[in-house]
Amino acid sequence: MTEKKNVYLTLHKNFVRTDIEYEDKVTGETKTFNQVTLPKGTVIDSIDVGSYQFSPLFANESKYRGENFRDIPLLADREVWLKRTILDADGQPVLDESGKPEKDTVKVMPQEIKEAVERQRSEYLAEHAKDSKDKGRQDLGSKVAEARDGSQALGARGDAARSRENARA
After folding, report:
1. Which of 1, 37, 116, 154 is 20 to 30 A removed from 107 (C-alpha atoms)?
2. Per the record, where are the segments of Basic and acidic residues compositional bias (predicted)?
3. Do the beta carbons of residue 80 and residue 74 sit within 8 Å?
4. Domain spans of the chain?
């Protein structure tokens, strides 16, 4: 049995930045890279890796989910290094002795990322579906009340019209 060579991670385009330009320090030539930010609430091995980032080689428009999603192919047998800048209590980056921001790094396998993102997405959708159902019920309840008030108003006008007709007869 052959193992899968790639693991495909699918994320909304808001979590994926493509073709970010930078100047190569050695050659001076302009190059590009991609950057993926994991959605908040993504948990791997009881560590919340939401807002951690990594730079995949490719980020393509999704074949199956449409233009608003991106497929990110990752090699199945290679670790992905997820990084996040460490912030102090005021939300400012903590700097190391060389003046660069300190990074928190978590090393995980691509399949773990895929499963965590899928779990986070299903929890998010379930939570928002529940919210929209509650909102829909409230909207339906208010629509029923409006319809009832309207029909009572029509009924009152209908009674008045009938009593005028009876008075003429």
Report:
1. 1
2. 121-149, 159-169
3. yes
4. 6-129
